[in-house]
Amino acid sequence: MESNFTIAAYVFLFPAVLLSLISLLKEKAVMHRLSIIAQGLSFFSLTLALTLRGISAGRMPFATLYEFTLLFAWGIMLVFFLSRVKLKSALLTSLVSLLSVVIISFSGTVSADVKPLMSALQSVWLQFHVVTAILAYGAFGVSFCLAGAFFIKERAENGLGKTLPSPEKIDSLMHWSVSIGFPFMTLAIITGAVWAEEVWGSWWSWDPKETWALITWIIYAGYLHSRKTRGWRGRKAALMAVAGFLAVLFTLFGVTFLLPGAHSYA
Amino acid sequence: MALGALFVASILSCSARRLGSISGAGDLGSVLLHLGLPVIIMGAFFSAAAGRSTYLEIGAGDSADLSSQGFPGVVITVQDFKIDYYDNLEPRQYTSAVTVQAGGTRSTGETSVNHPLKAGGIKVFQKSYGWIADGEVDSGRGKTKFSTSGQDIELEKAGPLKLKAVFIPDYVGVLQSGSPLPRNPRLACALVNDSALLDMQIFKVGEIKNVGGFPVSFTGYRYYTGLEIKKDPAVTVIYTGFMMMAAGFAVRKLFRGWDEKEVA
Q1: Residue at which a domain ends, from A82, A113, A144
Q2: Which of A105, A135, B66, B187 is the most buried (most CB within 10 A)?
Q3: Chain B residues with at least one Cβ partner in A under 8 Å
Q4: Which residues in A lie closer than 8 A to residue B235 (C-beta atoms)?
Q5: Which of B88, B125, B238 shows the shortest C-beta gap to A201?
Q6: How far apart are the first and last CA of chain B?
Q7: Which chain B residues touch A220 with a CB distance below 8 Å?
Q8: B226 beta partners
């Protein structure tokens, strides 16, 4: 049952991408509305899939790479829907749907087995750590899509970028998105450190996951500070948002496969 | 370290300047969150200077004096060790019943993963576990008892000859355990000369066999528990830094929002 909803979430994303692209070319608002409905259905299906998985596992679906990958896509879609209060763009819908397709596709390459919680994960800190990380990564995912939108707007003002607002507004929304993600990233690192102290007696061990989470945090801290103190906006800020999200991807997937450590289960 | 000190100095001077130009609670939150960082870094330096920790693998029923490992007068005794398994035989939780003697006081309690024991001013963390095999070997100069969790056993006067012993809790005909439970316990004992295998025997509990001419007996087996012992007064400082950062973000959010004003 759960896998049916995961497949449904995946399938709904394709019309979301196609319809939003068509609405870009044909300038039809109804197409964009339909693409948002498709993405909404995908988000709803993914929420149901994660809920059912949690029920069948008898725990929150926060324990395996498969679960975290689905949560990652869920977090990006959640922040995207929040961002629609400020910006409604067919291109952004398309980019976010595309990113979600890639992430959910990746979940198909890792084991979907429901596993019991290993002893180290049996802590209330798991919920705080994962929820804050998901909100952070979701916001960073949207900022990455906005950086993409910024570059497209810059190069194709009247082509693909015509449904987009001014580069200044995209830049401002990208900053809003990073401003949401950064405190949650900080909290994810703090809750992880407090948890590590409880479980291993070491709040910081320079484990590859910890180190890369810190690198990600430093990149986004650099984004916020360079904007405030050096006035870095536009292209430079967008490049930093891209670099930050690449660090997020490496922290989440690259470290898991290339640099196994204390977080090898995730 | 110098880099850390420079970073701390930089944030402190920056925060001092910010304090001078505070125009609302949101700015105060910003200063609080920035000051949290040097507090954490100073806590880390303090931890490196004043914190102590050691890792101990100890059998159920055994005691260890930690005086030589940076904990003068601290003696740990493991009264019991138990593992709770899931149906698929993955460990759900493992727990050591421990007595801590420190500074004239004696406290008993349990430590399990995610639930460290606090006693006698130290913390005892449950980190790992495994098996210890107990046995005896006659090396030609008399009988020597051994307890091993996988290390080599030196044979006196035998030059490069060593015994390698591996405990197999559930022997199923190969040198791998069928399950983590002691359903069919065996000791695999090999005589090696450097890396060359000279002889190997599989023992049941109580058996005595010759391994390359050396009589070896397998007398029993038990769990060992892996415990991390720690005393670190700096953790409170570090947690204070964490709280300052979290509070700083909360205050900023409450009084400034997510910098929404910037979004047109």
Answers
A1: A113
A2: B187
A3: 44, 53, 86, 88, 90-94, 112-116, 123, 125, 127, 228, 230, 235, 238-239, 242, 245-246, 249, 253, 258-260, 262-264
A4: 197, 203
A5: B125
A6: 43
A7: none
A8: B57, B128
pLDDT computed for residue B200 by the predictor: 93
CB atoms within 10 A of CB B23: 7
In a shared domain, residues A122 and A232:
yes
Whether residue A109 is found in the same domain as residue A151: no
Kindly list the residues from chain A whose CB atom is less than 8 angstroms away from the CB atom of residue B91: 118-119
- For residues A20 and A89, state if they share a domain: yes
Task: Look at the block and give the residue holding tokens 């830049």.
Answer: A171
The tens digit of pLDDT for each residue in B111-149 reads 999 999 999 889 999 999 999 999 999 887 788 888 877
Q: Which of B31, B83, B114, B252 to mutate to test the interface with A (most CBs of A within 10 A)?
A: B114
Task: Give contacts of A122 with chain B, Cβ < 8 Å.
Answer: 92-93, 113-114
Q: How far is B42 from chain A (nearest CA, A)?
A: 14
**In chain B, whose CA is at the least distance from the CA of A83?**
B263
Q: How close B253 gets to chain A, by Cα (Å)?
A: 10
Q: Which two tokens stand for residue B113?
A: 């993963």
Residues A1 and A124 in one domain: no
Output DSSP code: residue B150: S
Decide: A131 and A183 in contact? Cβ < 8 Å. no
* pLDDT tier at A256, thresholds 50, 70, 90: confident
Give the span between the Cα atoms of B198 and B221, in whole angstroms. 25
With CB atoms and an 8 Å threshold, state whether A179 touches B93: no
Residue B219's CB: how many other CB atoms inside 10 A? 17
pLDDT at position B10: 79
Vertex A43 angle, CA A41 and A46, to 5°: 105
Domain interval for residue A129: 118-266
Q: What is the pLDDT of residues A151-193, one digit of tens each?
A: 988 887 777 777 778 889 899 999 999 999 999 999 999 999 9
Q: Which of A119, A175, A183 sits opposite B249 (nearest CB)?
A: A183
User: Do A143 and A238 lie in a common domain?
Assistant: yes
**Whole-prediction pTM:** 0.89
- The answer to whether the CB of A112 falls within 8 A of the CB of A70 is no
**End of a domain among A113, A147, A173?**
A113
Give the total number of structural domains in chain A: 2
Q: d(Cα B220, Cα B147) in Å, to the nearest integer?
A: 9
Q: Are residues A176 and A238 in the same domain?
A: yes
| Whether residues A193 and A210 fall in one domain | yes
- Cβ–Cβ below 8 Å for A201 and B259: no
Burial (Cβ within 10 Å: 0-12, 13-18, ≥19) of residue A211: middle
